Amino acid sequence: MENKNFRKNTEKKEDLINLASLINIFMKNWKWFALSVFLFLGMGVLYLLIKNPIYSVDAAVLLREDEKKSSSAMSSMMAGFSDLGSMMGSKNVDNEVVIFNTRRIMKKSLIDLNMYISYQIRDGLRVINPYPFNPFNITIDPALVDTMQYTLTFTMKPTGKDQYKISGEYDDDEFETTVNGFPATIKTPSVDVYIEKNPNAYRKENGKPYSVDVTIFNPNALAILMQKKIGAGATSKKTTIIRLSTETDNIKWAQDLLNKIIENFNIDAIEDKNMTAILTANFINERIKRTEQELNGVEKVIEEFKIKNKLVDFSSQIKFYLSQSGEYEKSHIEAQIQQNMIGYIEDYVKDDKNKNNLIPSIGIEDKGLVAIIAKYNELLTERNRIETTSTISNPALNEMNSQLISMRQNIISNIGNVRNSLKIMVDDLKKQDLLASSRMSEFPSQEREFYEIWRQQEVRYKIYAFLLQKREENDLNLASITPKAKVIDEPMPGIKPIAPKKKVVLFIVLCLGFAAPAVFFYLKKMLKTEIESKEELESLSKVEIIGEICKDSAPNKISVRPNETTPSVELFRLLRTNLSFIFKDASEKVILLTSTMAGEGKTYVSINLASSLSLIDKKILVVGLDIRNPRLGDYLDTPSGKGVTNFLIDKSLKVNDIIQHSGVHKNMDIIQAGPIPPNPNELLLSPRLDELFADAKELYDYIIVDSAPVGLVSDTFLLNRIADVCLYVVRIGVARKDSIKFLNSIKDKDKLKNLYVVANGIDLKSKNGGYGYGYGQK
Question: In angstroms, rounded to a whole number, what is the distance separating the alpha carbons of residues 716 and 598?
Fold first, then answer.
């Protein structure tokens, strides 16, 4: 529980430090923040002036659901063409949504409107699309449009009246030409471009023409791009309403494109619906032509027979004598009609070129066969529908193909069965007819022969009349087809542009104006290898900071003197007070000072800390134990004399023989390091050093040891045995961040006892409010 509370307190402390650090960065560099905000706001305003407003343009269409007509004529037609069930449009709204946004319809719409050619002119600060008032009407041979593998771009700059300089490129192949009048044709590396002036062109206020940038896209590539920009979707699962939308800076351009997409969708749907009717019309026209030829042949035979036998008209006589056999004759004719129609259908089905076409059931009275053909046509239509929006690997498509093959064989088999049944019926009617004919045996042979010919004529005539009736019904069906998608909302833009949103843009640039310098200074801080503040030192170090020493610009290295109240003096007094809480009893007197590297101010801190302690009537001894690079005498301007190394080597020397007065305060003495020995590390292990400190403790209240930097040599670690408190001096702006890792390892391995950090070189100007009583302002 205590660990959790400790972590929470630490995290809160770090958050406060980070926040304070950010505030400190802002306060120190507020001019840069102000300049950044001004620049970013300027860029935001410039962006709003340059950027064209973007509008959302959308339209809504209602998908019609086809219904069977209730009129008697249409009912008769549907009864005769019950197989043509494809007149009913697809009710799958999701499929229709996909079809709306297919590349085929998109490409056709772009080509119809010539939108694969883009025009841009600069009007003030903005680049605009002048559609529909394009400066020129540019056309390309439709057969060559799809051959363009890359985008063709060129610029038309006016050089005089109807004179333009044209320069552009196609796949890094540059070209340049001039035009002295219009219409004109220019040759490019890809295609020839025909240019006409648009009399309704968008012009400058002074009437002068614009310089025009022209881009000609490959329609296929542009259609793929535009598919992503056109949104299509059902408004809900319970309706058949589809909404189309796009975002554009030219409202008229978007409106025309959406209208053209809807128009082409309807054309595609109508063509799909008409496919069955067109196939039926072709079938009927072919049969009518054949029947006409047969009827003409029979009529010619009758004509020749009458001329040869010098006959006038037997119709009234024949009708009188045939009154008794009228029912047989009627049935015989109907059976022959059925035989002929079955023969036509059988020829049509067995013809391989019709294997992917719908099978007409015209004139078939067998309900079973009609039902099978209707199911086949329904499945074939659905297969064709799916095939347009799917791939050949679609499992559903393969399953339908298998079913169609099986059903076609079944239809052929059923046609054979019906044909055999009709043959039996015709043979039976012939027998009945022979019985009736025997009753007319008294008629002359010419009359009987004429009767046979006349009956053939009657059969052909009824077949011909039946086909004409069906053709009229089919034409009526074609004329009654309505567009599948009804526009219920014309393409219209929103009341306000959706982009750019001025408030959002200005808010973003304002945030960027603050964020840019903050990120810059933060990264600068993060990339710097030196520690820049006490807060940063606290965040990196595991060792507690016991005191802070500010920068002192005074040339004198002794900052702490009697009656001084500078910030440095006060901070050394605060360090002195903090140390008083660390010592547990009077026997603890030795304060060891060290650092990672030279130049971090440990000698400066040692001397001034000693001076501060001497001001409270404590006898202080400063011992220079940086015997490799002694600096204590240089700081105090004391003459060199015998020091620690002399004492350690010469056993005849006493402690009083090497003690010198500091010249700073009467209570402050020093022992210099002495001559630099050849074996400093081994010398510090001498028992004489322990004797030195034992005797010094008898004479002084505190002993301050100025030792060597631990980042360079291991001498200081040998002094841990004589130290009671270790102060680790870290100079802000000089100490490297990786040196704190070394400090933390010392703490973790307990190489120096009672280890604390003294932060040296604190910049009071960077601290809000300074150190009380106005010290920060001095």
Answer: 13
Query: DSSP secondary-structure letter at 406?
Result: H
Report the candidate in 98, 105, 386, 99 with the shortest Cα–Cα distance to residue 220: 105
What region does 250 belong to: left with phi over 0, alpha with psi -120 to 50, or beta?
A: beta
* Phi, psi (rounded to 5 degrees) for 769: 85, -10
**Whole-angstrom Cα distance, residue 95 to residue 390?**
10
Look at residue 38 in the predicted model and tell me its pLDDT.
93
- Structure token pair of residue 598: 């030279």
As given in the structure block, the two tokens for residue 295 are: 């009827």
Q: What pLDDT, on a 0 to 100 scale, did the predictor assign at position 18?
A: 61
pLDDT for res 429: 75
Which pair of structure tokens corresponds to residue 768?
């809000």
- Closest to 189 (Cα-Cα) out of 201, 176, 202: 176
pLDDT number for residue 242: 92
Spell out the alpha helix ranges (H) of 593-676: 602-614, 632-636, 644-649, 655-658
Q: Which tokens go with 366?
A: 């067998």
What is the distance between the alpha carbons of residues 51 and 46, in angstroms, rounded to a whole number? Answer: 8
Cα dihedral sign, 308-310-316-322: negative
pTM of this prediction exceeds 0.70 = no
Which among 141, 143, 135, 142 is positioned nearest to 166, based on CA atoms?
A: 135
Q: How far apart are CA 400 and CA 406, in angstroms?
A: 10
Strands 590-595 and 620-625: unpaired
Distances (CA, A) of 464 to 285, 287, 327: 11, 9, 22
Q: What are phi and psi of 620, to 5 degrees?
A: -120, 140
User: 101-130 b/e with 16+ CB inside 10 Å = b?
Assistant: bbeebbbbbbbebebbbbbbbeeeeeebbb
In the chain, the amino acid numbered 700 is Y
- Report, as ranges of residue numbers, the positions in the chain whose pLDDT lies below 70: 1-22, 66-91, 205-206, 276, 308-326, 328, 389-392, 433, 435-448, 451, 478-480, 554-555, 766-778
| Phi, psi (deg, nearest 5) at residue 116 | -75, -5
What pLDDT, on a 0 to 100 scale, did the predictor assign at position 660? 92
**Pairing between strand 702-707 and 620-625?**
parallel
Residue with tokens 């059969």, as numbered in its chain: 459
Beta pairing, strands 755-762 & 725-731 = parallel
| Residue 547 CB-half CA count within 13 A | 30
Q: Answer positive or negative: Cα dihedral of 528, 531, 536, 537.
A: positive
For residues 69 and 77, give the distance between their C-alpha atoms in angstroms, rounded to a whole number: 10
Query: At residue 492, what are phi and psi to the nearest 5 degrees?
Result: -140, 145
Q: How far is CA 75 from CA 65, 80, 365, 477, 736, in A?
A: 18, 9, 16, 11, 97
Write down the pLDDT at residue 323: 63
Helix 30-50 and helix 502-527, axial crossing angle in degrees, nearest 10: 140
Q: Please, is 352 exposed, middle or buried when counting C-beta atoms within 10 Å of its C-beta (0-12, 13-18, 19+)? A: exposed
The pLDDT assigned to 770 comes to 43
Nearest Cα to Cα of residue 635 among 676, 667, 673, 597: 673
User: Cβ-count burial of 161 within 10 angstroms (0-12 exposed, 13-18 middle, 19+ buried)?
Assistant: exposed
Q: How many CA atoms lie within 13 A of 241 on its CB side?
A: 11
| First-residue to last-residue Cα distance in the chain | 46
81: helix, coil or strand? coil
Measured CA to CA, the distance from residue 675 to residue 109 in angstroms comes to 98
* Rounded Cα distance, 303 and 317, in Å: 18
Name the pairing type of β-strands 117-123 and 620-625: unpaired
Does residue 756 contact residue 563 with C-beta atoms inside 8 Å? no
Length of the chain: 778
570: β partners: none
Query: What integer pLDDT is reported at residue 12 of this predicted model?
Result: 52
Distance (Å, whole) CA 417 – CA 437: 30
